[in-house]
Each structure stands twice: as structure tokens, then as C-alpha cells.
Amino acid sequence: MSYDLIVIGTGPGGYVCAIRAAQLGLKVAVVEKRATFGGTCLNIGCIPSKALLHASHLFEEAGHGFAKMGISVGTPKLDLPSLLGFKDQAVEGNTKGVAFLMKKNKIDTYHGTAIVPTAGKVDVAMADGTFQSLETKAIVLATGSDVAKLPGIEIDEKRVVSSTGAIALEKVPGKLVVVGAGVIGLELGSVWRRLGAEVTVVEFLDRILPGMDLDVAKSFQRILQKQGIGFKLASKVTGVETKGKALKVSVEPAAGGDAEVLDADVVLVAIGRVPYTEGLGLEALGVETDKRGRIVTDMYFRTNVPGIFAIGDVIAGPMLAHKAEEEGVAVAELLAGQAGHVNYGVIPAVVYTSPEVASVGRSEEELKAEGIAYKVGKFPFLANGRAKANDETDGFVKVLADATTDKVLGVHIIGVEAGEMIHEAAVLMEFGGSSEDLARTCHAHPTRSEAVKEAAMAVENRAIHM
Ligand code: FAD
Ligand code: NAI
């Protein structure tokens, strides 16, 4: 068979790229080695973790949140197999949805492992044991990422788990030690804490959520501590002894010093993800990768080998599903002769805990490092009518605007529904808007989003409710 485009990998980058290319009239095929479409995100990432976050949040609300509103439901009982079943259904619904979209867009699908022997050719070792040799004008590599391993610590996905094992634990661990205070550690740590685990997070740096605005990260850490999550910052896990009933986790100060031993039933290793290119044959092809194993591309997603492109987690940039999707659309449009483009300055990031943490644009630390003079407008949810009515007042909105032009450079929110609220800031920034534009936009009352408007007003010290 011969195609205009073969996409390898059907995560958010790959499947979106295939659909957009098919919409633009290209003859497209995808190759996926997993049994289902949707990649990390739909099968073992975004979707299952969010289903667990949703269900565990409601479990906690039923136990602690309802009573204060005069709703008595007794002590909620956890049925973990059903809760995991709810998560599995969410995965199935989403992956089947992608299969439907492949058919709808007349995209040929190959289930198997792709190898690229040369530009213009893709060989597929099919899941059914057969072999297919395909020809194509262009190849998009969208093979995603895999769990970063901690040297000397073996992940068995039962007691020492990555996120993949942590979304499928058969029992609530009595004690869960999480290695890494990044997005996965805090989201899945929250899930198991809500379901009854005692959670301790060990983080190498002296702060949580590196990359996020420090003020936000500090405040968020206090909120998580109030919820019962323990933190050991500036610390490293040097070993996990798996003999015996309890795991023995050795923790040392990052700067060196005496080790302490923590008992754990489960250890979650969440220290980042690494690009996945295994078995593609990139070395023989001469496709350039960087020191971190990421495929090197130019602004048109071209690798150094003509006809071979790459997008998503396997190239540089934040490892986020929506970033991969934007790149998928852009490269498809470029291949169809259009002007595909991704604005990397406006990619929102959300931590789906309760409250949520959301940001778009630059942090204060980044602005300082770049020597950009900025103004800050901050507004707490404690002063927002809707947040008070719902008794969900943790957190704040922070707007960072250029000191000279007033252009909004970053917006950071901690609060319930922050992940939804961040998008008005993203749209504003996409259009190059100012804090004045945001401050003068009428926001419905009573909504949590009024806090965004008030934070923008606070840039010029004219917030009304503060
Ligand atoms: P992937 O989704 O990794 O897909 C790559 C696909 O390529 C896989 O299906 C793989 O089987 C296939 N493949 C690889 N090699 C071959 C080959 N040789 N032949 C055939 N197929 C191949 N991001 C968010 O934005 N929001 C979230 O809430 C979020 N939550 C997450 C939670 C967890 C627990 C994890 C682990 C990740 C989460 N992410 C989240 C990150 C997100 O999953 C990734 O950024 C996203 O999946 C990257 O998409 P991708 O298309 O680049 O690759
Ligand atoms: P991460 O990069 O977010 O966090 C890893 C953390 O581990 C960092 O704080 C790092 O300092 C720490 N660390 C590294 N080595 C360590 C060590 N030896 N000991 C202790 N701490 C150590 O990576 P994470 O959480 O594994 O997530 C992987 C990727 O998946 C992220 O890039 C993220 O973008 C994506 N993701 C996104 C989600 C979202 O958008 N809501 C949810 C989950 C994952």
C-alpha cells in the first residue's frame, strides 16, 4: 500500500495529526503497537488518572464535605474494584471514540510495531504475526514517552509502581511513598490519600512542581499539607528494599548526609518521563536525537532526514497531550501546503488536584530571569462571592503584565475549577491582550471567574472586593 502520510503512534499527537491530514484530503494510515488507540494519554495517562481524581474527590466530599452543607449520607464505603471499573470504562469510551474517528475519516489502521527502514517506507510487524511493508510520501513519528527509571530501583508495577501501576492498585496502600513532587506524584498521591492512604512525597528539589510559579507552588504545598500529604523536600530516595512485608525506603538529604528509612506498602516512582523511540530504527536512519533522547526537529517539525517529521512527547517541549495535539494539527497542515504553527508561549498547564493549579505563560521567576519588568495583580478566592457561597475559598488568581505595555505575560491560578478558568487567559494572551482588556471585560456574577477580572484590576490597584 502507498500513502501520502503514515503516522506512527496514535496518542493525542498521532491520532489528531492523522485526522487533520485526512480532513485536508491526504491518504493517511496510522500504525499503533498497543491494542487500542489513544496512546499514553487515553490508556494509562490523562483519562484514567482524571477518572480516579474525579471519583476519589467525590468520595472525600461525601465523607467530609457534604455534612457541612447539611447533607447527611453516613460514612461512605469504598468499593475499589467498582471505582477502578469506572476508570476502565472511561478509558474504553475514549479509546473506542478514537477508533470511530479513524473509520469516520477513512484512515487505514495497522496494529503492530513500526520500523522505518528508510524515508518513504514503513515496515510493520503486525500484532497478528504477519508483516506489512508500506510506502508513503511522509512519515510523522509520534511515539510518545515512557516512564523515567530511578537507577537501582526496579518497578514491578505491584509494590514499586510507575503511574501505570498506580492507576490500578488492587488495595488502598496503608502507606504510600511517592518519589517526585511533579504532576503525577501530586495527582496520584492525592487520589490514594483521599481513598485512605498515608502519603509521603519525597522530592529532590527544595520545592514542589518545578517550572510552576514559585509563589503558587509554595501556597499549593501548604494546601496539600493541610489535606494530610507529607513532604520531604531536598531529599532523594537511594534505595527500596523489597524483602519482607513492608518496603523499606532509604531517603537521604539531596546534599548528602544521614539516611532515614521510611516504611511503605507501595512506592510510586514519578520522576519524569523520557522520549520513546525504541525499535524505530532511528540510529540506522541517521535521525538526530539530543542528549535527552528527544528527536530534534525544526519549527516545521522536520527531522534532519527529509520526509520524516516528529511531534509530541518524543520531541522537545512540555510533555502535555494538548501540546502534542497542536503539533499534530500544525504538521498535518504543513504537509497539506498550509501554514501550520504552534504558539509555544500560550500552552496552558493544569494539575487536576483539588483545588486545581493552572497556569499559562510565564512565571515570575522566568520574567525575572529574562529581565522583563512586570506588574502583579493578585486576588484571593476568599474575597470572591461564589467561592464563599460554595465554601471553596482556597487559592488565588495572579496576573502578570508587562510593566510598560500592560500586555499579559502570565496567569496563574490555584482554586477549584482553575483548569477551566485558565482558558480565558489563554485566549486573551493568544490575541496579545492587556490586563486592562481583562479588567474591562464584563464577567457574570456570581462566578469564580470574576476573580480573574479582579486580579487583572489589581494590577492597577483597583480591585473592588479587596
Ligand atoms: P503517546 O500518547 O505516548 O502515544 C504514543 C503512542 O505510540 C503509544 O500508543 C505507543 O504504543 C505508540 N508507539 C510507540 N512506538 C511505536 C512503534 N514503533 N510502532 C507503533 N506504535 C508505536 N497530559 C496532559 O496534557 N494532561 C493530563 O492530564 C495528563 N495526565 C497524564 C497522566 C499520566 C499518569 C501520564 C503518564 C501522562 C499524562 N499526561 C497528561 C501526558 C500525556 O499523556 C502525554 O503528553 C501525551 O500522551 C503525549 O502524546 P503523544 O501522542 O506524543 O504520545
Ligand atoms: P515531572 O517532571 O512533572 O516531575 C518529576 C519530579 O520528580 C520533579 O519535581 C523532579 O524534581 C523530581 N525528581 C526527579 N528525580 C528525582 C529523584 N531522584 N528523587 C526525588 N525526586 C526526583 O514528572 P512526572 O510527575 O513524572 O510527570 C511526567 C510528565 O507527565 C510531566 O512532564 C507532565 O507534563 C506529564 N503529566 C501531565 C499531567 C497534567 O498535565 N495534569 C498529569 C500527569 C503527567
UniProtKB/TrEMBL annotation:
<feature type="binding site">
    <location>
        <begin position="180"/>
        <end position="187"/>
    </location>
    <ligand>
        <name>NAD(+)</name>
    </ligand>
</feature>
<feature type="binding site">
    <location>
        <begin position="143"/>
        <end position="145"/>
    </location>
    <ligand>
        <name>FAD</name>
    </ligand>
</feature>
<keyword id="KW-0274">FAD</keyword>
<keyword id="KW-0560">Oxidoreductase</keyword>
<feature type="domain" description="Pyridine nucleotide-disulphide oxidoreductase dimerisation">
    <location>
        <begin position="347"/>
        <end position="456"/>
    </location>
</feature>
<keyword id="KW-0285">Flavoprotein</keyword>
<keyword id="KW-0676">Redox-active center</keyword>
<dbReference type="InterPro" id="IPR016156">
    <property type="entry name" value="FAD/NAD-linked_Rdtase_dimer_sf"/>
</dbReference>
<comment type="similarity">
    <text>Belongs to the class-I pyridine nucleotide-disulfide oxidoreductase family.</text>
</comment>
<dbReference type="InterPro" id="IPR001100">
    <property type="entry name" value="Pyr_nuc-diS_OxRdtase"/>
</dbReference>
<feature type="disulfide bond" description="Redox-active">
    <location>
        <begin position="41"/>
        <end position="46"/>
    </location>
</feature>
<feature type="binding site">
    <location>
        <position position="272"/>
    </location>
    <ligand>
        <name>NAD(+)</name>
    </ligand>
</feature>
<dbReference type="GO" id="GO:0045333">
    <property type="term" value="P:cellular respiration"/>
</dbReference>
<dbReference type="GO" id="GO:0006103">
    <property type="term" value="P:2-oxoglutarate metabolic process"/>
</dbReference>
<dbReference type="InterPro" id="IPR036188">
    <property type="entry name" value="FAD/NAD-bd_sf"/>
</dbReference>
<protein>
    <recommendedName>
        <fullName>Dihydrolipoyl dehydrogenase</fullName>
        <ecNumber>1.8.1.4</ecNumber>
    </recommendedName>
</protein>
<dbReference type="GO" id="GO:1990234">
    <property type="term" value="C:transferase complex"/>
</dbReference>
<dbReference type="GO" id="GO:0005737">
    <property type="term" value="C:cytoplasm"/>
</dbReference>
<dbReference type="InterPro" id="IPR006258">
    <property type="entry name" value="Lipoamide_DH"/>
</dbReference>
<dbReference type="InterPro" id="IPR023753">
    <property type="entry name" value="FAD/NAD-binding_dom"/>
</dbReference>
<dbReference type="GO" id="GO:0004148">
    <property type="term" value="F:dihydrolipoyl dehydrogenase (NADH) activity"/>
</dbReference>
<feature type="binding site">
    <location>
        <position position="50"/>
    </location>
    <ligand>
        <name>FAD</name>
    </ligand>
</feature>
<dbReference type="GO" id="GO:0050660">
    <property type="term" value="F:flavin adenine dinucleotide binding"/>
</dbReference>
<keyword id="KW-0520">NAD</keyword>
<dbReference type="InterPro" id="IPR004099">
    <property type="entry name" value="Pyr_nucl-diS_OxRdtase_dimer"/>
</dbReference>
<feature type="binding site">
    <location>
        <begin position="319"/>
        <end position="322"/>
    </location>
    <ligand>
        <name>FAD</name>
    </ligand>
</feature>
<keyword id="KW-0547">Nucleotide-binding</keyword>
<dbReference type="Pfam" id="PF07992">
    <property type="entry name" value="Pyr_redox_2"/>
</dbReference>
<dbReference type="InterPro" id="IPR050151">
    <property type="entry name" value="Class-I_Pyr_Nuc-Dis_Oxidored"/>
</dbReference>
<keyword id="KW-1015">Disulfide bond</keyword>
<feature type="domain" description="FAD/NAD(P)-binding">
    <location>
        <begin position="3"/>
        <end position="328"/>
    </location>
</feature>
<dbReference type="InterPro" id="IPR012999">
    <property type="entry name" value="Pyr_OxRdtase_I_AS"/>
</dbReference>
<feature type="binding site">
    <location>
        <position position="203"/>
    </location>
    <ligand>
        <name>NAD(+)</name>
    </ligand>
</feature>
<feature type="active site" description="Proton acceptor">
    <location>
        <position position="445"/>
    </location>
</feature>
<feature type="binding site">
    <location>
        <position position="313"/>
    </location>
    <ligand>
        <name>FAD</name>
    </ligand>
</feature>
<dbReference type="Pfam" id="PF02852">
    <property type="entry name" value="Pyr_redox_dim"/>
</dbReference>
